[in-house]
Structures are given as structure tokens and as C-alpha cells.
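Example for tutorial group B:
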């Protein structure tokens, strides 16, 4: 792979970002791209937001008036992405993670916030590459199998 640039922004103040979370997100994105054998230079943006903002985005873009844990905004289709005019890298898309929802889900499930965010990142990165589970069926099964494989590959555990 040429290089994957993962730009991470924190646009929320409700959940403290744990040390090492940004590096973990980069590892997750790199693992997805390596597994999918994407070798071109690429860029992904990951933004931490709160429940209010993710609810607004969910309503605006999906017509669902509720908060969710993560949203994916692909900027093209696999192999047909816009190019960053400054770098020539393929602009894959944006990931928005509600840190409030991620923390709530981690606490409810009894695992760590880092594990939860890693799963959400892998899930969303696969969406950016065109995978979809919304219709169920074999595509949903394949996506879940990839998520499980990749979360194990990066070495994060439920206690993280």
C-alpha cells in the first residue's frame, strides 16, 4: 500500500479521548485497507462527535431522527474515488463516531471504550469501501465475518 492518511478530529467535549485511541483508529483503517488489498494512496477522515451532532447528521442524510453510534460518508465508489488535488490521494470518505454512544454501548456490554471504537471504525471503514449489511443476507454475514477477523488481527481485546 502506498499510504493511508487517517485524519482524526475531536469535535465533542463530553467524552475524554483515551490515550492511544487515535493510533488504534489508524491501525484499524490500515488493517481494513491491507485486507482489502487497496494499494493506492488514500485518505479517510474520522471525527469524534456527540449524540446531538450524530442525530442531526442521521436525520439530514438518512432521514432517521435518532442518534446512532457511527455514520459513514463514502466519497465515491470502490476504485472510483475523487482525488485530492494537492496530494493525488484517493479521498475515500468520512467516518463520524458518537463518543457518547460508543461509551454507553461499551459500558452496557461490559467491554472497553477502545474495543468499541475499534469495532465501529472497522465497521465504518468497510462501509466506505462499499460493504453493506442493511439488507441482511450473505452480504451482512460477509461483512460481520470481516469485522470479526479484523478486530482479532489488530489485537485489541474486549477489556481495552
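The residue assignment follows.
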Amino acid at each position: 500500500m502506498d499510504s493511508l492518511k487517517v485524519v482524526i478530529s475531536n469535535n465533542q467535549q463530553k467524552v475524554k479521548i483515551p490515550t492511544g485511541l487515535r493510533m488504534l483508529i489508524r491501525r484499524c483503517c490500515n488493517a481494513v485497507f491491507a485486507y482489502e488489498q487497496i494499494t493506492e494512496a488514500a485518505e479517510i477522515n474520522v471525527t469524534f462527535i456527540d449524540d446531538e451532532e450524530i442525530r442531526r447528521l442521521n436525520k439530514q442524510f438518512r432521514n432517521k431522527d435518532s442518534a446512532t453510534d457511527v455514520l459513514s460518508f463514502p466519497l465515491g465508489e470502490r476504485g472510483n474515488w475523487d482525488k485530492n488535488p494537492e496530494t493525488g490521494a484517493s479521498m475515500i470518505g468520512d467516518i463520524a463516531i458518537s463518543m457518547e454512544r460508543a461509551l454507553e454501548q461499551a459500558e452496557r456490554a461490559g467491554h472497553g471504550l477502545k474495543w468499541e471504537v475499534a469495532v465501529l471504525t472497522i465497521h465504518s471503514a468497510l462501509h466506505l469501501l462499499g460493504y453493506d449489511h442493511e439488507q441482511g443476507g450473505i452480504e451482512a454475514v460477509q461483512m460481520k465475518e470481516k469485522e470479526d477477523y479484523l478486530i482479532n488481527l489488530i489485537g485489541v481485546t474486549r477489556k481495552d
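Residues 137-154 form the longest helix (18 residues). Compare this with the pattern of hydrophobic and polar residues in the output above.
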